[in-house]
Amino acid sequence: MERIYLDHAATTPVDPRVVEAMLPYFTANFGNPSSIYQEGRAAKKAIEESREKVAEILGAADTREIIFTGSGSEADNLAITGVAWAYRKKGNHIITSAIEHPAVLETCKELEKHGFAVTYLPVDEYGLVAPEAVRDAITDRTILVSLMHANNEVGTIQPIAEISKIVRAKGVLLHTDAVQTAGSIPLQADELGVDLLSLSAHKFYGPKGVGVLYAKKGTRLHRLIHGGAQEGRLRAGTENVAGIVGLAKALELAAAGLEETVPRLAELRDYFINKIFSRIDHVKLNGHPTRRLPGNINVSFEFVEGESILLNLDLEGIAASSGSACTSGALEPSHVLLAMGLPHETAHGSVRFTIGKDNTKEQLDYVLGVLEETIARLRAISPLYREQRGRKEK
Amino acid sequence: MRQIYLDNSATTPVRPEAADAMREVLLSDYGNPSSFHSLGIKAERIIKEARRQLAAACGVNEAEVIFTSGGTEANNLAVKGVARRHRKRGKHLITTRVEHPSVLNAFRALETEGFEVDYLPVDREGLVSPAEVIAALREDTLLVSVMHINNEVGSVMPVAEIGRLLKEKNPQTVFHVDAVQSFGKLPVDPRKWQADLVSISAHKIHGPKGSGALLCREGLLLEPLFHGGDQEQGIRPGTENTAGIAGFAVACRLALRDREENYRKMTGLKKYLAAEIKRQIKDTSVNGPEEGAAHILNVTFAGIKGELLVRFLAEEGIYVSTGSACHSRRPEPSHVLLAMGLSAEEVGASVRFSFSALTGREDIEYTLEKLEPAVAALRRMTGRKK
Fold first, then answer.
1. Which position has the higher pLDDT, A120 or A389?
2. Which positions ≥6 away from B287 have C-beta within 8 Å?
3. Per the CB < 8 Å rule, is A35 touching B38?
4. Rounded CA separation A352/A180 (Å)
5. What is the CATH number of domain A16-254?
6. Inter-chain CB proximity B69 and A74 less than 8 Å
7. Is residue B132 part of a domain?
8. Most buried of the four, B161, B232, B277, B340, by CB within 10 Å?
9. Does residue B386 lie in a domain region?
10. Domain total for chain B?
């Protein structure tokens, strides 16, 4: 059975070219980057070259603005907790949104226990934060605004550049969790006007276990991990050299391919959405119709459970998701969909398909066939659906 | 040119078996372990199997293994995690002056948060006295953290005795052991040591960098270093480094399979190198106890600069170091050797040779061949007679 992977927002397969780039750093160039001799210098050089690559692609002014971390979650934590404690004397107020990734939301909740005040801005039905709401929420105690660039569940892209103008005019720092956008759409820290930006390699065909925090020069940060002097003293621990090399290679490949992949994925996405709507009734598209990640399709199928759909798709070799992978073990409805105003039942019936660079139109056609059949079968045994049809017939 | 790597305490090459396992996971088993579908479940199984192996290797339960990005993170999680989570119970912490920077600097960070830390001295051999640990205990002592093997001089701390005395006197006090240097070389046995927390790292045992673990006794609550998803029971959020974890497990299996044999072999090499250095080169002294760890030999060559010797030997393809790699780029003298009572001059004249299972007798022979002339040349440079 052919396996069709449509869960690229959860993680991506590692590009074989990335694996090839990583392998020498396990064996031939295995030195500790902190060592002073040749073996160590080769590892150090590989890290610094990777840093230069990442800095250039992200539009950083200085390579020292790139801090390698152990994951996107760690980068988010370092940005938010790091700024919170470093600027504690200036203020204690942080602004974020209700639809952030748990790495941001849980970090903010934790800071609330330590005397910080957090505003969780609402979003509209499309998952957008209103720039005016950001402006209204800023007080003279505000030290940080943290808003994700694109949402991992519904793919809505926030107007970060517009929000940046407001935030910067008030002298407040701006962090964006760009874990979903890096490698998916053009991403330049300077153009977005952010002070901090996090990303994770495994979302753009790189390895798991490595992320980046971009921190604009002059931004002070408190460390999460103390020890050696690695990463400009901001992140201790022997560097994951192979992982860092893999991250830079993956970002380089992704950036080079954007011009081709963005329109192609958007076309596949729109094709898939249109086909779903023409073939299945009682369907709702979640997220914004146009301000949306090119690979993201999030739909609610009324009268059925998302988990049942996924189980059936998986049996047919199709991998999709009901929301973010981090919460998919829990059967709670998505906090993102609820924040967008979806009723519990509709949120429960939602499925996320995220297309990647290797997916084809033929694969999507196959998925559409399985999906149509699955939904029909599940609805046939759904009392809610029968009731609804009964009402219609009357 | 021949390459002889004698800096295995800094890092080790990844074993081909571990690299192959990682390659396979990277290319094929890329699912997110938190995902609901088959690919996710496959990735989750790989982690579960690695967890089982590591738990078995250390005689703990599977739920007691928390994967981290390395030994430094594990040490930070242990030290800060206990202090911050249990601060209502007390503010006193105990460690030694010769710990790894990831432990020492975690304690220094806690001092700025209002904790009181005792940094216990060590003797001339780099050993902390169990009696002194016990004497330092207070009713409000939250944590005692002592490394198993010192990374610079190879002294093997009496962790089992410290654990026993500590738990007799003050069972509430948490005991952490940094076993990054000993895992795979000496038995790592949290139960026997009565240690609540033990840190280990993959890249010191021919596994990958970016992968480590904290063994955490069931029921002990820790404050996470960072927050997010519920990976690793919520103690360590973030998508798991599946390949790194798989590589760690393979490295662990191989390290333990031949552990005793390798340890015996390294003991022989260390004794031979130490004896030959003493015989061939005047005015040298070995730092650390004779019965120290088999893979670490720290030697002071009076009258030279250790850093220059490292560079000289590197020119000959021999890689050694002046101490821990984590601060070998800074010119600061080793805090370990200073704590052992060496003068600043002696500290600056010290070099560490560290072995692995892959080190052979011929590597030592070759090193000795190059070492004597290098030391002689350096001593001539500084105007000192041989």
1. A120
2. B126, B153, B298, B299, B300, B337, B340, B342, B350
3. no
4. 14
5. 3.40.640.10
6. yes
7. yes
8. B340
9. no
10. 2
Q: Is the pLDDT of residue B385 over 70?
A: no
Type of residue found at A245: V
Which residues in chain B touch residue A19, judged by CB atoms under 8 angstroms apart?
A: 23, 26-27
Same domain, B58 and B177: yes
Query: Would an 8 Å CB–CB cutoff place B358 in contact with chain A?
Result: no
Q: How far is B80 from chain A (nearest CA, A)?
A: 9
For chain A, the maximum distance between any two Cα atoms, rounded to a whole number of angstroms, is: 83
- B246-274 pLDDT, tens digit each: 999 999 999 999 999 999 999 999 999 99
Give the total residue count for chain A: 394
Distance from CA of A76 to the nearest CA of B (A): 9
Active site residues of A: 326
B35 in contact with A, Cβ within 8 Å: yes
B33 has pLDDT over 90: yes
Nearest CB neighbour to A26, from listed B22, B27, B311: B22
Contacts with B328 from chain A: Cβ below 8 Å: 34-36
- The answer to whether residue B47 scores a pLDDT higher than 70 is yes
Q: Please name which of A205, A198, A164, A163 lies closest in space to residue A184, comparing C-alpha atoms.
A: A205
Boundaries of domain holding B287? 4-12+259-381
pLDDT above 70 coverage of chain A, percent: 97
- Do both B248 and B365 map to the same domain? no
Q: Looking at residue B333, what is its pLDDT? A: 87
Cα–Cα separations (whole angstroms), residue A278 to A272, A284, A294, B231, B246: 10, 12, 20, 39, 45
Same domain, B238 and B141: yes
Which residues, other chains included, contact B362 with Cβ-Cβ below 8 Å and sequence gap of 6+? none
**Do the chains contact at B314 and A37, CB–CB below 8 Å?**
yes
Q: Is B193 on the interface with A (CB under 8 A)?
A: no
Across the interface, whether the CB atoms of B227 and A229 are under 8 A apart is answered: no
Is pLDDT of A29 > 90?
Answer: no
Residue B326 touches chain A, beta carbons under 8 Å: yes
Comparing A5-19, B190-204, B331-345, which segment has the lowest mean pLDDT? B331-345
| B173 and B301 housed in the same domain | no
Fold of A4-9+259-393: Aspartate Aminotransferase, domain 1 (3.90.1150)
Do B270 and B199 share a structural domain?
no
Question: Is it the case that residue A103 has pLDDT exceeding 50?
Answer: yes
- Spans of all domains in chain A: 4-9+259-393, 16-254
Check whether residue B266 and residue B242 sit in a common domain: no
Identify the residue whose tokens are 């139960």: B191
Dig out the tokens for B92 from the structure.
């006193």
Which of B198, B223, B257 is where one domain is finished?
B257
Residues B221 and B77 in one domain: yes
A71 inside 8 A of chain B by CB:
yes
- Cα separation, B25 vs B15, in Å, equals 16
Residues on chain B touching A228 (C-beta within 8 angstroms): 72, 101-102, 324-327
Residue range A187-215, pLDDT digits in tens:
999 999 999 999 999 999 999 999 999 99
Q: Are residues B123 and B213 both part of a single domain?
A: yes
- Written as one letter, the residue type at A16 is P
User: How many CB atoms lie under 10 A from the CB of residue A217?
Assistant: 10
ipTM above 0.90, yes or no: yes
Whether residue A237 and residue B69 make contact (CB cut-off 8 A), yes or no, is yes
pTM: 0.95
| B202 and B212 Cβ atoms separated by less than 8 Å | yes
CATH code (residue B377): 3.90.1150.10
Q: Which residue out of A148, A238, A321 would a mutagenesis test of the B interface target, given it has the greatest number of B Cβ atoms within 10 Å?
A: A238
d(CA B110, CA A242): 32
Q: Model confidence over B153-208: pLDDT tens digits?
A: 999 999 999 999 999 999 999 999 999 999 999 999 999 999 999 999 999 999 99
